[in-house]
Amino acid sequence: MPDSETRQERDDTVRADFRRALRDTVPVAMGYVPLGATFGILVVKSGLAWYWAPLSAALIFAGSMEFLAVGLITAGTPLLQIAVMTLAVNFRHIFYGLSFPLEVLRSKFARLYGIFALTDETYSLLATMSRSELTARRLTFIQVLSHFYWVGGSLAGTVLASALPPSIEGLGFVLTALFVVLAQECFYKRTGISATVMGLAAGTIALTVGERSFLAVAITVFVVLLLGGYGLARRTGNAHVR
C-alpha cells in the first residue's frame, strides 16, 4: 500500500508538471504551429520531398536555419558553406547556454535533450519563470511540447501545401508577435526594469549596424551591459541584477 501511494503521488506530480508546461507553452504553440506550417509549405513548394519538413523539424529543430537551409539546398550550395552559415546563424545559442538552467536536469539524457532543444522561444519562456517554480519534469515537458508543436506544424504544412498558395500574408510576423508577448510577460514578472532598459539599449545600438548583423550585435551588446551591471552591483554590495 505505501508503494502504491508513493507511485500515485508521483503520477499526480508528473501530470501536474505536464499541465503547467502545457499552459506555459501556449504562446509558443501560437507561434510554432503556423510558422511550422509555413515551413512545410515552403519545403513542398521548393520541390523537395514532403517528408523533409517533419524530418528536419525533428532532427534539426532550428527554425531560422531550417528556412535558410531550404534555399541553400535548392541552390546547390556546398555542404561546407552550409555548415559555416549554420554556425553563424546559431552562434547566439552560446550566450543562451550561460544562463540556461541545465543544473535542474539530473539525468544525462535529459541534459543532452535540453541542450539540443534549446531554442529562442523556449529560452525566452524560461527566462520569465522563477527557478523555484521550475522542476526537471516541467522544463523537459516545456521543451518536448515546443518540439512537438514545431514538428506538428511542419507536417501540417506539407498536407496543406497542395491547397494553399506558396505564401500567406501575415504569417511572417507570427514569431515577432510571440517575442513581443514573451517580452511583455517578462517585464510584468520582474521587479526591476534594468533588463528591459538594457534590452532596449542593445536593440537601439544594433539598429545602427543593419539588419543582417542585428541579432549578433544586439546579443553582444546586451551581454556586455549585463556583465557591466553585474560588476557594478557587486561593487555596490548588491550582486543580484534584475
UniProtKB/TrEMBL annotation:
GO terms for biological process: L-valine transmembrane transport. This is AzlC family ABC transporter permease. Pfam families: AzlC. InterPro entries: Brnchd-chn_aa_trnsp_permease. It is found in: Cell membrane. The keyword Transmembrane helix applies. The chain crosses the membrane at residues 25-44, 141-164, 170-188, 193-209, 215-233. Belongs to the AzlC family. Keywords: Cell membrane, Membrane, Transmembrane, Transmembrane helix, Transport. It comes from Nocardia pulmonis. One of its GO terms (cellular component) is plasma membrane. Its main location: membrane. It is a multi-pass membrane protein.
